[in-house]
Amino acid sequence: MLERNSETFLGCDAGYEEAWAVLYGAPFDSTTSFRPGARFGPSAMRHESFGLETYSPYQKADLTDIRVFDSGNLELPFGSAESALEEIEKRAEIILSDGKLPILLGGEHLVTLGAVRALVRRYPDLHILHFDAHADLREDYLGVRLSHASVMRRCWELTGGRTGERSIHQFCIRSGDREEFHFAGGHTDLHPFGFDGLEDLTERLAASGVPVYLTVDLDCLDPAVFPGTGTPEAGGVFFPELLNALLAVSSTRVVGADLNELAPMLDASGASTAVACKVLREMLLALSHGRA
Amino acid sequence: MLERNSETFLGCDAGYEEAWAVLYGAPFDSTTSFRPGARFGPSAMRHESFGLETYSPYQKADLTDIRVFDSGNLELPFGSAESALEEIEKRAEIILSDGKLPILLGGEHLVTLGAVRALVRRYPDLHILHFDAHADLREDYLGVRLSHASVMRRCWELTGGRTGERSIHQFCIRSGDREEFHFAGGHTDLHPFGFDGLEDLTERLAASGVPVYLTVDLDCLDPAVFPGTGTPEAGGVFFPELLNALLAVSSTRVVGADLNELAPMLDASGASTAVACKVLREMLLALSHGRA
Amino acid sequence: MLERNSETFLGCDAGYEEAWAVLYGAPFDSTTSFRPGARFGPSAMRHESFGLETYSPYQKADLTDIRVFDSGNLELPFGSAESALEEIEKRAEIILSDGKLPILLGGEHLVTLGAVRALVRRYPDLHILHFDAHADLREDYLGVRLSHASVMRRCWELTGGRTGERSIHQFCIRSGDREEFHFAGGHTDLHPFGFDGLEDLTERLAASGVPVYLTVDLDCLDPAVFPGTGTPEAGGVFFPELLNALLAVSSTRVVGADLNELAPMLDASGASTAVACKVLREMLLALSHGRA
Amino acid sequence: MLERNSETFLGCDAGYEEAWAVLYGAPFDSTTSFRPGARFGPSAMRHESFGLETYSPYQKADLTDIRVFDSGNLELPFGSAESALEEIEKRAEIILSDGKLPILLGGEHLVTLGAVRALVRRYPDLHILHFDAHADLREDYLGVRLSHASVMRRCWELTGGRTGERSIHQFCIRSGDREEFHFAGGHTDLHPFGFDGLEDLTERLAASGVPVYLTVDLDCLDPAVFPGTGTPEAGGVFFPELLNALLAVSSTRVVGADLNELAPMLDASGASTAVACKVLREMLLALSHGRA
Amino acid sequence: MLERNSETFLGCDAGYEEAWAVLYGAPFDSTTSFRPGARFGPSAMRHESFGLETYSPYQKADLTDIRVFDSGNLELPFGSAESALEEIEKRAEIILSDGKLPILLGGEHLVTLGAVRALVRRYPDLHILHFDAHADLREDYLGVRLSHASVMRRCWELTGGRTGERSIHQFCIRSGDREEFHFAGGHTDLHPFGFDGLEDLTERLAASGVPVYLTVDLDCLDPAVFPGTGTPEAGGVFFPELLNALLAVSSTRVVGADLNELAPMLDASGASTAVACKVLREMLLALSHGRA
Amino acid sequence: MLERNSETFLGCDAGYEEAWAVLYGAPFDSTTSFRPGARFGPSAMRHESFGLETYSPYQKADLTDIRVFDSGNLELPFGSAESALEEIEKRAEIILSDGKLPILLGGEHLVTLGAVRALVRRYPDLHILHFDAHADLREDYLGVRLSHASVMRRCWELTGGRTGERSIHQFCIRSGDREEFHFAGGHTDLHPFGFDGLEDLTERLAASGVPVYLTVDLDCLDPAVFPGTGTPEAGGVFFPELLNALLAVSSTRVVGADLNELAPMLDASGASTAVACKVLREMLLALSHGRA
Fold first, then answer.
1. Could you give the ipTM of this predicted complex?
2. 3-class SS of residue C87
3. How many CB atoms lie within 10 A of CB E122?
4. Which of B218, D77, E10, F199 has the smallest number of CB atoms closer than 10 Å to its CB?
5. Is B57–D266 a contact, with Cβ atoms under 8 angstroms apart?
6. Interchain CB contact of F78 with C (< 8 Å)
7. pLDDT tens-digit profile of C56-101?
8. The whole model's pTM is what?
């Protein structure tokens, strides 16, 4: 008897029960204001991950030794951001309630809000580590408040805006309107252009044991490395810097994570999808320390 | 003194006052369920129209002799279909109230609903001629009622669903779920695959003098001719058939029109954008009879 | 508890036991002599099939009503044609021995040989219906006998070459070297350019009840419709003709089938993959008559 | 001892002395007003011709049996149309003076003028058969008289404009400004859209024995078949029609020919280059009757 | 009443009277010797600039606060370099005579010569800052003296060749024939590979108050960052280095500037156009110091 | 009398007798396990090399001054790795026996084995310098021992595996399975990620006068610089580092070399082919020291 075709991200074929981490995809990009296509990101990462090795010579570790489950993509309606966020929140809630680490694959960056809503209910003192070219701090975008350009503002309202702490830590930021940078000046912990200050921060966060959500917009990478995204923004970081940043973050108490904004059709060479897969491999291995 | 850069569709540089027809673009594709990109359609048509001649050897007529005004694109928020439709309706309303013919450039097909709302208020007995590969008659799509897949169903509610007439006439349809074909069987005038029956119909409509809205989803064309669209559907019509259909329609009393679903990035050769421009030229010339 | 991600061709989610037909993919293109990439065909068809409807307005039938199982892709070594053919033959053998119809998704056309080996053992009087731009009748290609350019010659050796009958029926052929056409003149039933003679043939085959294998190289389609293939050959048939041909074939006793030579990366518009999906839908529905 | 790498169009490897026809390439596109790239046409045809068979099942003839020499590409300066035309004329003159048939591969259509200048000196009563989507009859283009858009006007001045005959015969024309069609009405033999009237004409030309130059702008083909060109124009002919037209022309006394306007980079699928190669194969075989 | 569609580069919507700087586009690439397409550069930058923010976090300044006018593209004939240069010179002359800074968007690099002709008449002691991968110092290219490969040689004849000074300062140069490097050794101030020496130079130029023309061939950037250009040349600078160079230049007395050689179709990801837009934003902001 | 079209890599037009180095191409990629297309590498490098200068400002040397012969591509059967390797070995043997340096252009990396077989017969103490992202040390790949993923393992069996020395020196390696890194730990001289240790090594090798084979898999470069390859692997070196490495190697006694894994169709911008050409120019110039 033959088995039905299944497709998981490279090496993420543990059973649900034994897994400590669960991948879930949110193929949504309805609020993207420039070039859409991030909806195809999570599937492309699964399809093309078999071009990658399971072994990391950077961490000397192997995906086949850690136990990750891939629950596939949510079925999300286009044209209704609120419904999409509800589905994401529900899935994150299930994974959290089963004691596992939810790892979201976007999709446009707005999807992060769904996950953060679930996490903040469980961890009211949540800190967010945000790697991105864009500040994403707009109050609204042409009147729409649920937008990829506003997602960190909405997350701030749920975290620092409520607790009074500067609990959103932004790195690699090199784009935003004047308002956003002004808002950041007063309310978030924004590090422009690169990862300056990350090591200090992660040491502090690790020492305090505070719960951390890691959200990676892959356009933090320079478009040289990652052209396959809706709004490529020159002047970004390169892979070795992002790798080191992930390793630094792994010393903190990460309770959820996501990886966003791969628009695979925009880079026909496949190099953008390949680097996204490699970042996910390194993220999974880094977060598995002490768990898998 | 120099003039500011302006960009209109080829030959559509009349003044507003003197124009009998007005182009308006709706760069919206948030509800597209498969490959997005129709948002770039209207701009691409303007950019690339200069590769086309203003003269039509088919109609022996020239765009420089008719007077069309190009009012550019609406600024539409992504992620809110309702707001987008309101903007479209408002623009159509202004054009209609100035006694001019509104010609909408999409965008995904949902944009038609904005125009039809304005037209139906003015012409309660409106008939709709619908050229499309897809029936677009779904009650909803994953719970969302404002979707490109439901646009003709929504239009039906405003027209035939209210008057009891089969006033939506669908041609070239070759895709839909079983429900949609069943619904069409009871409520619309659906002609599958091609233009069979169009000539009879337009003669009848012309004789009766009933107001007609023409909505052209360019994917009625075969993907051989028009691959640059989100959901290419084999088995369509070719350019000469569509040209003849436009000429047939021009004998009726057309009170509004649109042209949709060019996703220019999906056809890097530019041939899809070129044929879209040519269809628009022929549509404008055909509709100008007795007006320009 | 969440379910592992699975991915089947549109609507082919029956259980194995209840299915009458089984899809199996052969992602192999090592002997392709010009542009490779057919290896990505079966996966692309699964990924992109969700852009298609399950319902066929041509046959007024729905994939959700027939029971097809998708067993995914074989894991095939590149660089060893013989090993690849053995894997294909084994899979076909399992499906046949479970009383189900094996439907192979290539890959380059050589994969057909693996399936035909299994079928001919069970049906020594097998006839082959071959739709293709190319005759594929070379004795060898640069000394290599297991080549996409020789696959029909190898199949002939197993069927007509053994029985003495002209049991290979070739349609749409418009490319080959002089030798191949000469060979065909003496040994196969070759119909150049299109489907002339197919209806007569299928009536005869249906009447005789002889077992038939259907092999479709999608490049029988004109490159206008299907540019996404390694060796596009102008002057082919269009979708409606291929659809009619499939319907004609469905009246015979089909005991196995395949669909080959989609190289999805060669057509970035996605139109080639879309038409391949549509051909498969129509083929499944056509073959389901009296079975599903 | 090894041989230096050479590259000829498929099967065109005769020695110069024995050849009856000589290929020469003009990689020039400086006056192209829309999308350039035709400069890469002749090289692309050589590179990719090995994906084609030397044998034609249409004509039951083989390139390996006729003797054609490929003299490669001229080295042409970009930015000086006059110098480029002089080089082309010189090469045509050499080939003609050696008693061989010159067959030019463009490049943009202006290159034809260089060849026609050489031919008209030798054949003052030259007729020109012109297959093209565009009339190319402008007096000038933005003041420039040596332009792809004016090439047939310049050719007319050298032939019919001098002799008073309608000796330029245009087929498939479906684009031009009003002036051009008006000029054609008075001075050329223009057949719009397709090949209506060609058979009559070629019979007359064959009977009279008048020398004929054949110039094929590949954009006479529909963009469905041939999107890889600078100004794709919907509504063209398909391959079988062009093939029949070539066969009709081969009955006349052809003294020179060209094939133009393949811009290979505009069609990444390679299908446009493939059909260009196939058209050249059929043209060479058709013209070889009674010569090779 | 509706307004006609206009399209300016992001945030450059000042009135002509109030503007201190004026953009003008030269969509010309007729002398390009390798891959053409730079003609589409200026329009692509306008179309896609709305994907960029008006605010620069590098300079903490905003395009909405400075007053730049976008006068659109010149209409230039292809195939006549001299006519094109005349049009460019005329436009530059108008802008200069109105006391505004002319900023030219190419097109191929030859367009610079038109602007320099206008500037040198007004500023006989003009210095030129030249950022480029290529020396552009050929005496001629295949006999043509007005070529992108000779533009700096022609500029030198108008400046240093006349005054006897080394007033052409070349940076990032990593390609040229031996002659060009030899010529540079004797006549220009050539800095190979990067920006070594720029800071010293700009301090000297600023101190002396000499008028400076800045010409940026975007291929000074590494192809990793900017693949969308006709002759990508590995080993270039990255965005942060170019940004710093622009800031250094802004301390001198810049009297004219240009930005060239974006060929947008060569980079389908859009990243090349995006970085070109960002460089223009930073250039405008840098040059606005003390003016806007 | 005209000459037949020939095509050599830029400036490699010496006569065979006078040449010290001979290029030979192996357009083979049958064992490629992910994205194929490297078969088109050698031809693409020839076609596009005319976009490069013959002069190197890095080495202040010119290809027109050294004498290299380009013998074109071998005709290799797809689907039989062993036959392909035999053809490569034979060609290398001829070049070696004529006292010239064989320089192989791949193709996938397996082709190296053919050359190494010829070299090791003549130089039993051969050392191999291997620049690559991938270790290529698998014992087999899905049971196939002649695979691109095993090529260095096969080479090791012929060299270090026989002599007992660590004579394979690997640089830039950042991908492989755990086994491969383990094998390298015991049997090769592997330097992960970059060129650390190369200068020391080349000094030692130069001093000892041991014969050296240089094999460059171009994917040692970062995908930012070189996306046009089958398995792009982030975190690689950039052009200046590779250039310096080639210069270091040129001090040793190089007796053969190759350059592999350009898959030109995967990078439509042409930048990958351009950098491959530039690497080959620099390699030829570097290796010519004391020979040409």
1. 0.96
2. helix
3. 14
4. F199
5. no
6. yes
7. 999 999 999 999 999 999 999 887 899 999 999 999 999 999 999 9
8. 0.97
